[in-house]
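Problem 12. The chain below contains 205 residues. Write out its predicted structure in token notation.
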Amino acid sequence: MALNIIMSEVIAQNERMPIQKIKRDVRNKSRGYTVATLCSGGCLDTIASVMAGYTPVWGTEVNEKLRALWRALTNSPDLGDTFDPHRDWGDEETPDLLWSGQPCPDHSVMGKQRGVDGETGWMYVTQWQVILKVKPKTFILEQVDNVDSAAVEALTEQLTDEYEIHQKVISVRDFNDISNRKRLFIVGLHKSLGEPSRTFKFPTP
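Solution.
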């Protein structure tokens, strides 16, 4: 249920986000479900997570201004580069949910369309290594809907031993967003969760 709520929240971003309220909620709420974010960017997915009842525990980002935004908003550490080869992920708290929105310019029809050979396109596939080291109970991966199917397969086939994988292209307009963007969402649930990992259903408008 909580995963469905966060999916709905992050898809529907047509209203002004109550930033100050989010900051208060993060600092005042008791810890329930936890979330960590790879490539936190402008923190919209983090805001949706908090609105859905999750507590941020850490994030990754390389842009210094966006790193500062994460820290100010969540009062939790930003770890820098997601793909730092020297990081020991065992030192970090294991979140209930890992959210990842890797850069899309190399995959988007509006971008360079160089796919995994692009400057940042390789990150989309390579993130499986981070996921298996972090070992979250669940994860959500977001990317443009036209991402190459071979890249999607290369990513998911590395995760299927430990996670039940569910994927769907969703039009955000169906969730009352003013844009008409479509995004591919991949949801993974650890097989140790049992039946719920196999019966997950995406939220409906």
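Discussion. Helices lie at 2-11, 19-28, 44-51, 64-74, 122-134, 149-156, 195-199. Students who got a different answer should revisit the alignment rule from Section 12.3.
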